[in-house]
Design a protein that fits this description.
The protein has about 80 residues and is mainly alpha-helical. It contains three helices and no strands. It is globular, with a radius of gyration of 14 Å.
Length: about 80
């Protein structure tokens, strides 16, 4: 089985999150499915997955890189 892409891991994490909060946001409104999530929110979830990878592989870089993601776009997907 091939490795998951960052986008696939982000989608899986989002689905796990929505399941954990019973599909509702903090106001009790329904959360969109991954497919209906706006692209910039999908990118934000991918950023979170990439940051987790940094925490696992190079924890000494984790805190320094936390604030470096603003405006980041996945490779090949910049506007």
């Amino acid at each position: 089985m091939p490795d998951l892409t960052y986008r696939q891991m982000a989608a899986s994490a989002y689905r796990a999150y929505t399941d954990n909060v019973v599909g509702r946001n903090h106001l009790g409104l329904p959360l969109p499915t991954w497919e209906d999530l706006p692209p910039h929110r999908q990118v934000a979830w991918e950023v979170a997955v990439r940051q987790i990878e940094i925490c696992l592989l190079t924890p000494e870089d984790a805190a320094r890189l936390e604030g470096s993601w603003q405006g980041w776009e996945p490779p090949g997907e910049a506007p």
